[in-house]
Amino acid sequence: MAPKRKQTTACDSAATATTTRVTRSSTRLANSTVAPPAADAEPPKRKKGKTTAATAVKPEGEAKSLPEQAADGGKTIIIERSTECSRFKTRAIQVKEGLEKGVAGVKVVVNPEKARRGCFEIREEGGEVFLSLLDMKRPYKPMTDLDMEEVISDIIEKIR
């Protein structure tokens, strides 16, 4: 059974009637009426989301987009690689370095947009697809069977 309430006297009830209960919401309301927000105060800054290579703001010197770069005479090669394993990354870097050494004036871009899962694809900007391995599952057998030096030399021949 719950304990009985204590009997309050007249002076105790008058003291409790004048004091109010302080809560978080009541203090917030009291503080907001005391100090109104300044009209010239800056609004809070928004958090910026992640930017991709395609949507990133470029400095004035790099204002050209990928199709405009290709129109200047240099070819643009796109390597689309999955981000789920480092094997894709090592092969993409190997192909990029090989193409930049083998062909003068070629631009090699790795993942200009979000890559597909299990994908390793090498293609020319708006044109020919040199290598396309899609929807690979672990252990990525089609990719590991490739001789990357041979693939690089074949692409260089097709570009020239």
From TrEMBL:
Residues 8-28 have a biased composition (Low complexity). InterPro entries: SelWTH-like (IPR052674). Residues 1-75 are annotated as: Disordered. One of its GO terms (cellular component) is Golgi apparatus. PANTHER family: SELENOPROTEIN H (PTHR33638:SF1). This is Selenoprotein H. It comes from Sesamum latifolium.
